[in-house]
Each structure stands twice: as C-alpha cells, then as structure tokens.
Amino acid sequence: MGTLKPISRPGLYAITDTILMPADRLVPAVEAALRGGAVLVQYRDKTSPHTDRLRQASALVSACHNAGVPLIINDDYELARRVGADGVHLGQEDGAVTEARALLGEQAIVGVTCHASLDLARTARSNGADYLAFGRFYTSGTKPDAPKAAPEVLTRARSLGRPLTAIGGVTTDNGAELIRAGADMLAVVGGLFSGTPDQIEQRARTFTQLFATHHPLYPISSKPGAQP
Ligand SMILES: Cc1ncc(COP(=O)(O)OP(=O)(O)O)c(N)n1
Ligand SMILES: Cc1nc(C(=O)O)sc1CCOP(=O)(O)O
Ligand SMILES: [Mg+2]
C-alpha cells in the first residue's frame, strides 16, 4: 500500500475562476479560503496565456504549500509538473489518468470528472483516480451546461471506496445535503469566491463547519469542543 494521500481529509475544495478572481485578486482570495479551512485548491483557468498561467500557478503553489494544502491544476498535467503542483483534475476529454500518473508520479493526486455515472467512476477508479467528482448538482453560473446529477449518486458511489467530490452550484445553504448524501469534499467556485477576502474566509469557515457537523469521518480532534 502507498502512503495515505492528503486528500483523506474531508472538507472544502476551493476552485479558482478567472472572472471572479482577476490576476491581482487571485492569491489573496485563495489565501482567504485557506484561512477558512479549505483542504484542497484547484487552479482552473481556461483562457489566460500560458505565461500568465505559469506565473499564477506558481504563486498558488507557494500560497497553498505555506498552508500545508495541496494544489491541483485543472486539465493540464504538463503545467502541474512544471510548477510542482500536487496533482491534476481531468475531465472525460482531458487525457488519461495513466498518462498523468506517469508524468506526475505515484504520489500525485489525480481526480476525474464522472458526471452522474457510476460506470465512469468505476473506470476512473480502475485507471487509478484518487478522487471521483460528481455533478453538477445545482444551478451553476460558472458552468451552466454541465450535465445534471442527483445527490443519490453520491450515496451509491460510496461503495467505490474513493473520496467523493461534489460540484456544481454548491453553496453554504445546500452543501449539507451533499455531505449527508456521501460527499467527502465540496468543490466550489461561485458559492465561495464571489465576494471580498473577508466574505470568502467566512464562507470557507461555514463550509468547514458543515463537515464538522455532517461528515461521519470528520477528524474527531477537529470537531468543535473536542479535547486536543
Ligand atoms: C473537482 C472538479 N470536478 C469537476 C470538474 C470539471 O472538470 P471537466 O469536466 O474537465 O470540466 P472543466 O472544469 O475542465 O471545464 C473540475 N474541474 N473539478
Ligand atoms: C467546473 C465545473 N464542473 C462541473 C461539473 O459538473 O463537472 S460544475 C462546474 C462549475 C462549478 O462552479 P460553481 O461552484 O460556481 O457552480
Ligand atoms: Mg477539464
């Protein structure tokens, strides 16, 4: 068995956005999410020139590693390798898990989009995915046309034995339903990053509190009121 990867901690998965977070606000916004308890961060930028993406991803590696949190790069495992990120998130059209693993190494975190499909999830698991992402669960301003999923898919996917991520229109109001259905991470763009750093930090704390209240495996020592 390999070493346990850091995604074994349930919690908020913060995903960046080029519209909500222009270059000068990117790092402060992510630092606010980290102060609020985000356990994983994804750099998702589908439009900026390569040199900008390289600079921004490098800055995020430093911010995340200062907080002891892994940084995932969306789509681009070559960029992940260049900046020393901790892994990559792959959609169904973004290349093979095995190729990403070969480039990034055994310890890399590779996540895969499974939409609402247990078959896609089984295939992703066989190919070595470290977490399985399901969605979109609610109305999403960031990706309105993503295929729909119902929370029950999370409950069914629990038997696959991989951490489950829920994405798409997730907010502090609807997140508890997804955690109770089986989500180990809530992947959030608009429901987290549409605001000032203070608001982002407060929302991240609220998401973190949802895990403390509703996730069965939330670390005992992190539960409010628990003795250290
Ligand atoms: C955690 C997480 N889940 C799903 C996605 C979506 O990936 P994909 O289907 O490749 O779509 P794009 O994000 O590339 O538009 C994700 N990025 N992260
Ligand atoms: C990037 C992405 N992927 C989705 C999927 O369902 O695969 S939904 C989505 C957008 C997530 O942003 P927001 O939290 O603002 O809805
Ligand atoms: Mg993709």
Automatic annotation (TrEMBL):
Give the Thiamine phosphate synthase/TenI domain ranges. Answer: 12-191
Q: Which reaction does it catalyse?
A: 4-methyl-5-(2-phosphooxyethyl)-thiazole + 4-amino-2-methyl-5-(diphosphooxymethyl)pyrimidine + H(+) = thiamine phosphate + diphosphate; 2-(2-carboxy-4-methylthiazol-5-yl)ethyl phosphate + 4-amino-2-methyl-5-(diphosphooxymethyl)pyrimidine + 2 H(+) = thiamine phosphate + CO2 + diphosphate; 2-[(2R,5Z)-2-carboxy-4-methylthiazol-5(2H)-ylidene]ethyl phosphate + 4-amino-2-methyl-5-(diphosphooxymethyl)pyrimidine + 2 H(+) = thiamine phosphate + CO2 + diphosphate
Which cellular components does GO assign to this protein? cytoplasm
Q: What superkingdom heads the lineage? A: Bacteria
Q: Which GO terms describe its molecular function?
A: magnesium ion binding; thiamine-phosphate diphosphorylase activity
Kindly state which keywords UniProt assigns to this record, in alphabetical order: Magnesium, Metal-binding, Thiamine biosynthesis, Transferase
The entry marks the following residues as binding Mg(2+), namely D75, D94
* Residues the record lists as binding 2-[(2R,5Z)-2-carboxy-4-methylthiazol-5(2H)-ylidene]ethyl phosphate: S140, G141, T142, G169
EC annotation from Swiss-Prot or TrEMBL: 2.5.1.3
Question: Which EC main class describes this enzyme?
Answer: transferase
- Pfam families named among the record's database cross-references: TMP-TENI (PF02581)
Q: Which residues bind 4-amino-2-methyl-5-(diphosphooxymethyl)pyrimidine?
A: Q42, Y43, R44, D45, K46, N74, T113, K143
Q: How is the cofactor bound?
A: Binds 1 Mg(2+) ion per subunit.
Q: Which cofactor does it need?
A: Mg(2+)
Pathway, per UniProt? Cofactor biosynthesis; thiamine diphosphate biosynthesis; thiamine phosphate from 4-amino-2-methyl-5-diphosphomethylpyrimidine and 4-methyl-5-(2-phosphoethyl)-thiazole: step 1/1
Q: Name one GO biological process term.
A: thiamine diphosphate biosynthetic process
Family in the record: Belongs to the thiamine-phosphate synthase family.
Recorded hits in NCBIfam families, A to Z, give: thiE (TIGR00693)
Q: What is the purpose of this protein?
A: Condenses 4-methyl-5-(beta-hydroxyethyl)thiazole monophosphate (THZ-P) and 2-methyl-4-amino-5-hydroxymethyl pyrimidine pyrophosphate (HMP-PP) to form thiamine monophosphate (TMP).
Name of the protein this chain belongs to = Thiamine-phosphate synthase
The organism named in the record is Marinobacter santoriniensis NKSG1
Q: Which gene encodes it?
A: thiE
